[in-house]
Amino acid sequence: MLVDTHPDIIEFIISKMQNPRILRYLIENTKDEQIKQLAQEKLKFTPLTKTESDLYQGIVNYRSMPGLGGFSNAAIREAEQKLATGGTYDVHNPEFLTGANISVCITKDFMNAVENDDVYELRFPDVENYTETEMKAYNEQWHEVGDVRKWEEMGYGVRVYRRIKAKELWNLINICATYSAEPGIFFIDNANEMTNAQSYGDQVVATNPCGKVASFASRKKIG
């Protein structure tokens, strides 16, 4: 599970996509160059050989003949599609994370950026420039904080890795979630506002991929 501010969130989502049609749709419709590039890298295209082209063309030639040469309409349509695309689309690394689910944490800041059509910052603790003391704090506390906003409030440096139109990232999440059932979506700020764990001084920092089992951290410990 990654939060919507994480610099690797785009690669995280696209790396799990196994449907070539989703990748082709993203390439054709996104305005974000990183999304387009990662989708192109994930998509695999195998051109038809001359023999395959001749075979498909032979099937298509029966289209206007009585009886369709024994082929079904579906077979002829598929042959036409193969000739139109010039090959077969597949994905690289089809076994990547097979059997595992992925999810993303959605914050209110992100949803506000989507609604206002704003640019959104992908950020993470600036560990490359931390002092020895700051790095020690990161190693000991970050896994319990898990929120770059809170981390920044605590006085630690945060690096902006890139800026993206919030709607482009939201569209990526929704397209992939709708047509491949991943990533799962967990509204973490809403969860923290509504959980009774607040009464015990705790907060939700993550869940399992299905959002059924929450992981809590003590606010007192990380505050």
Task: Describe the fold and architecture.
Its cofactor is adenosylcob(III)alamin. One of its GO terms (molecular function) is cobalamin binding. InterPro entries: RdRp_reductase_class-2 (IPR050862), RNR_lg_C (IPR000788). Keywords: Cobalamin, Cobalt, Oxidoreductase. The model has no long low-confidence stretch (mean pLDDT 88). The radius of gyration is 23 Å and the shape is elongated. It folds into two domains: 37 residues, no CATH class; 122 residues, no CATH class. The protein starts with a strand and ends with a helix. It has a three-stranded parallel β-sheet. The protein has a two-stranded antiparallel sheet with strand order 2-3. The chain has a two-stranded antiparallel ribbon with strand order 5-6. With 223 residues, it is an alpha/beta fold. Strand 8 and strand 9 form a beta hairpin.
